[in-house]
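# step 3/5: fold
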Amino acid sequence: MPIAEHYATPIHGHLGGYFQRVNDFNEKFNVRWGKIEFDVFYGVQANVKVVLKVYREHGLCETYIVDTDAFDIQWDRHKRCTRDFYVLPFSNNFGKISCIKFSYIIHLNEHSIASQKDYIFMNKASELKIIAGNVLFTDEDYGRVSDHCGYLMTFEPK
């Protein structure tokens, strides 16, 4: 079965800093912008859609679909970058963001091909480093609990 990673790979993700906006009630709030760039190993007819998952306190998950635009186009490959997306770091109703993950879907020849993995945004300035990683819930062990495997990462202070 084909997976999206056979056609494209995320190569750079960026979450910008906080900046302030004002709503119609003249209330101030902070937002962060982000974008994700991909190398696509196929012609420009392969489109990429990003499924952005914003997790908040108490298990709430917001899900967004983000479009991408092609650039650096060659006949057999190209790059894609999401349009800027914006997240609300803190919501009075739902709390602060605890994690931002994404997966992606390749649209090619009227078929949709999902990524096998979920990807997570990490803070480069974090005081944590990954020391181990394991693949979980594969067909060979407990079986899949979703449409893809799970990954367990172990972190320790730098």
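# step 4/5: annotate
The two ends are 39 Å apart (CA to CA).
# step 5/5: archive (pending)
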